[in-house]
Design a protein that fits this description.
Oligomer: single chain
CATH architecture of the largest domain: Orthogonal Bundle
CATH class of the largest domain: Mainly Alpha
Order of helices and strands: EEEHEEHEEEEHHHEEHHEEHHH
Number of strands: 13
Shape: globular
CATH topology of the largest domain: Transferase(Phosphotransferase), domain 1
Strand content: 15-25%
Structural class: alpha+beta
CATH superfamily of the largest domain: Transferase(Phosphotransferase) domain 1
Distance between the termini: 59 Å
Strand order of the largest sheet: 6-10-11-9-8-7
Radius of gyration: 23 Å
Number of helices: 10
Largest sheet: 6 strands, mixed
């Protein structure tokens, strides 16, 4: 297992399998939670509970013999792992350029989901989005370029990186990239992924567990978000549109609710803000950020306990966004303090 990683309950997926009927089969398995490849050689039936434990395993080759016994081996990771054949390189240039950091500076990595780890970097909680397969490279490249485009704006270009990141989050409701993670800084600048602040839970996860719960339930929970928070998000997406940046996949999975302490000191009226992550690939059949935001408003409406006046205004704003893509008009609807 890679260094500075905390073992997580395995989530194993079989990626390839070669079968010789009546003789044997061999396959590649990937543990999504622990970012580890396995080679499996099977001459008889084998069940994952026989070899996949809740503690770290020292082996990465599993041999199931015809007599039903299991034998384990350990081979170098580069022999077992499916290689990433394409390369993406990054070099940080300029005052407000995204910094570069080495992979070995990320510690206490633990899985959050497909290709995303929570970790510690420079004494802060972060989310590390990694290149796990060749298909991830295009999305990571687009993530980097979208943030670079924002950092090149005239009012951000002259600022130090930390100040520019704060404005990016507050003006565009976009989680910034703290650093591009490479294999070894100044030696091998092949990109392994991007590092972002740990922004809080997604709306999707809150809809299952609730804002004050740590355990998932089967019922949908009240999101406890306000019309003001949705208006703030709409303003941020409008700002992105005005500078020509398309998010490409606005939905409940890619919208986070930031913790109170992240914004209270900044003087914002809302205790929590809604911010966007994942500026990677544009979703299939994606119409526009405005249309997707309207869909998100409807999704939130169905999972929130608002008064009748707020419900109507959010419905009206969603309709405007979906039909006309008019951010100004939608914001005007959300701004209206009159009861309807």
């Amino acid at each position: 297992m890679e260094s500075n990683r905390i073992w997580h309950e395995p989530e194993v997926v079989l990626y390839s399998c070669i079968i010789t009927p009546g003789v044997r089969c061999s396959g590649e398995a990937y543990d999504l939670a622990n970012r580890r490849w396995y080679q499996i050689n099977v001459n008889s039936g084998a069940y994952d509970e026989e070899w996949m434990a809740d503690t770290e395993t020292p082996f990465n080759v599993i041999n199931a013999t015809v007599d039903g016994s299991l034998k384990f081996e350990t081979k170098p990771d580069h022999v077992i792992a499916r290689p990433i054949r394409e390369k993406l390189q990054f070099y940080s240039e300029g005052k407000t350029a995204i910094p570069v950091t080495s992979f070995d500076r990320l510690v206490d990595k633990v899985s959050l989901g497909r290709s995303v780890d929570k970790c510690r970097w420079n004494d802060q909680d972060c989310a590390f989005k990694r290149i796990e397969f060749d298909c991830d490279i295009k999305a990571i490249d687009r993530e980097i370029k979208s943030r670079e485009r924002l950092l090149e704006l005239p009012d951000l270009r002259c600022l130090a990186n930390e100040d520019a990141n704060q404005i990016m989050e507050h003006r565009f409701n976009a989680i910034p990239i703290l650093a591009v993670v490479v294999i070894e800084q100044d030696v091998n600048n092949d990109v392994m992924g991007i590092l972002m602040p740990f922004g809080g839970p997604s709306l999707e996860s809150l809809s299952v567990s609730g804002p004050n719960s740590t355990a998932s339930t089967s019922s949908s929970e009240d999101l406890e978000i306000t019309r003001g928070q949705l208006r703030d998000l709409a303003r941020g997406v409008r700002e992105l549109a005005q500078v020509g940046v398309v998010h490409g996949d606005i939905n409940e999975r890619n919208t986070l609710k930031t913790p109170h302490e992240a914004n209270a000191a900044e003087g914002y009226q809302e205790q929590n803000r809604l911010v966007l992550i994942d500026f990677g690939d544009v979703a299939p059949e994606y119409k526009s950020d405005a249309f997707a935001l309207g869909e998100l408003f409807i999704w939130c409406k169905e999972r929130s306990s608002w008064g009748l006046s707020d419900l109507r205004k959010i419905e009206d704003a969603a309709q405007v966004l979906k039909e006309n893509g008019d951010f100004d008009r939608a914001l005007s609807v959300l701004d209206d303090e009159r009861d309807t």
